[in-house]
């Protein structure tokens, strides 16, 4: 029997006179790559921001790995087990690739402030373990040789990989990727797809927002389509692609 990692239902969000989300829900099982797509302004990023604590929903229920959680703050969501990347890359530009991943790993540290101030043996041991794990994750995403390079010096595609490594460093139940292929060339997109495939094979779970419909349809196990903040289709990619509401949303009623 498959394990439910994320169950969200009845999510609504209004900004003044704009109803950005209306009764949105998704159900994601472990090891799945789940796509969330829709035309510009459909509400995809708003949903991501609600899910990850950047926006407070007006209504909705949230369960992660069978436990209720409230996405009221980013750090609480990270603690619950959701890590995300952003459409606009958000790395610590002057820190090395290794240091960026170590920052992500620190979300799971135990030594605390006193250990850090007094450099206790347990703190030093934990720091060494964090560095080892960060190196492993840089190798995993294919940029291990750049561990000591400042993040700003990496290529665009490698910065995207670094963001994913930092997200993985938190040992998340769910990785939420916001437009990871944005700005990538064809070669980088192929490499990204291979990396996401590998993450899935390692039994991790991914929620993916992506404008590249071809990438989504070739990669995702299930897809939800939003339009004007409402879900208009959900299912396996082959069925969603043939859905008349989806075709109209993307191409217009004249096609």
TrEMBL record:
InterPro entries: AAA+_ATPase, ABC_AA/LPS_Transport, ABC_transporter-like_ATP-bd, ABC_transporter-like_CS, BCA_ABC_TP_C, P-loop_NTPase
Entry GO CC: plasma membrane
Listed EC numbers: 3.6.3.-
A GO molecular-function annotation: L-valine transmembrane transporter activity
SUPFAM superfamilies, per database record: P-loop containing nucleoside triphosphate hydrolases
Secretion signal span: none
GO biological process: D-alanine transmembrane transport; L-alanine transport; L-isoleucine import across plasma membrane; L-valine import across plasma membrane
EC top class named in words: hydrolase
Keywords from the UniProt entry: ATP-binding, Cell membrane, Hydrolase, Membrane, Nucleotide-binding, Transport
Top-level taxon of origin: Bacteria
Domain ABC transporter: 6-253
Pfam families the record matches: ABC_tran (PF00005), BCA_ABC_TP_C (PF12399)
Entry keyword Lipid biosynthesis: no
Name by which UniProt lists this protein: Lipopolysaccharide export system ATP-binding protein LptB
Originating species: Polaromonas vacuolata
């Amino acid at each position: 029997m498959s394990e439910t990692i994320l169950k969200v239902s009845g999510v609504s969000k209004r900004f003044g006179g704009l109803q950005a989300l209306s009764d949105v829900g998704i159900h994601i099982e472990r090891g799945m790559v789940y796509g969330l797509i829709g035309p510009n302004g459909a509400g995809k990023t708003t949903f991501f921001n609600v899910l990850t604590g950047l926006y407070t929903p007006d209504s909705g229920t949230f369960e992660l790995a069978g436990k209720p959680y409230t996405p009221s703050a980013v750090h609480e969501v990270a603690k619950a087990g959701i890590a995300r990347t952003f459409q606009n890359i958000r790395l610590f530009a002057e820190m090395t690739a290794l240091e960026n991943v170590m920052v992500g790993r620190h979300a799971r540290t135990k030594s605390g402030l006193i250990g850090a101030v007094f450099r206790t043996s347990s703190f030093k041991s934990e720091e060494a373990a964090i560095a080892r794990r960060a190196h492993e994750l840089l190798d995993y995403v294919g940029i291990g040789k750049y561990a000591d390079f400042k993040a700003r010096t990496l290529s665009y595609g490698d910065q995207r990989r670094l963001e994913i490594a930092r997200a993985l460093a938190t040992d998340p139940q769910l990785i939420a990727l916001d437009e990871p292929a944005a700005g990538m060339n064809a070669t980088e997109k192929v490499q990204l797809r291979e990396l996401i495939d590998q993450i899935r094979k390692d039994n991790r779970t991914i929620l993916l927002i992506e404008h590249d419909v071809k990438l989504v349809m070739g990669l995702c196990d299930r897809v939800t389509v939003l339009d004007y903040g409402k879900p208009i289709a959900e299912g396996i990619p082959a069925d969603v692609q043939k859905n008349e509401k989806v075709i109209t949303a993307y191409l217009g009623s004249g096609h």
